Amino acid sequence: MSNITLEGIATLLEQELKPLKTDIADIKKTQNQHTTMLDGLAKDVKTLLDEKTITTHRFERLENWAQQVGLKLGIKLEL
Question: Which helix (H) or strand (E) holds 2?
């Protein structure tokens, strides 16, 4: 029968948990990197969508202006 002490059990547990702590730290680091990257992508997508909205409105105004000019000049424009 072996002599198992609380200190011995604690040492064994510490040795077993050490790699897990390292793995968890690595996972958290990777998660933080992914979160940062996703935040950047989300910002870029929002910027692109905002630019698309602005461009669409500008294009609609230009089409309207072109139709008004066409009407005044007696030209039928198909847009």
Answer: none
Q: Does the structure show a pLDDT above 70 at 34?
A: yes
Contact 77, 66 (CB under 8 A): yes
Three-state DSSP class for residue 3:
coil
**pLDDT number for residue 3:** 74
**How long is the chain?**
79
- pTM for the predicted model, two decimal places: 0.59
Nearest residue to 53 via CA among 64, 45, 63, 42: 45
Quote the CA–CA distance of 78 and 31 in Å, as a whole number.
53
The token pair at 28 is 């958290």
* CA pair distance 46, 66, nearest whole angstrom: 30
